[in-house]
Amino acid sequence: MSSPRGFRDRADDSLLTLLGEVPELVRNLVIAEIESAKKWVARTAKDGGWGALWMVAAIFVLFWAVPVLGTFVIAGLSSWWPVWLSALVVFFAMLIVTAILALLGILRFRKIGESQNPVQSIAQDVKEVRDEL
What we know:
It is a single chain. By secondary structure, the protein is mostly helical. Helices cover about 85% and strands about 0% of the residues.
C-alpha cells in the first residue's frame, strides 16, 4: 500500500527487510545532501556574482563623483584660503577618509572567516557522531 506522498507503508515489513534497506536509504541521503550542497554553492555564486557586478557599477560611478565633490569643496574653500591650500586640505581629508574605509573593509573581511558554512557544519556533525560511537 502506498501513502499519499508515494511512499510505501513499511509497518508490515520484517526487521531484516528494513535493515536490508538501510544502505540504500543512506546512499539516497548522501546523494540528496550532495545535491543540496551543489544548489547552495550555485545560488551563493550567482548572488555573489550579481553583488560584485553592482559593486563594480557603484565604484565606477563613485570614481567619477569623487573628483567632482573634491572640486566643489576646493572651490568653496578657495573663497577663504588660497587655491593651493584648499586643494591640500581636501587631499589630506580624502586620505583620512580612505584609511577609515579601508580599516572598516579589513574588519568586515575578518568577519567572513568567523562564520561557519554548511560543509563545516556537516563535518562537525559527522565528527560528533563518530565520537558518540
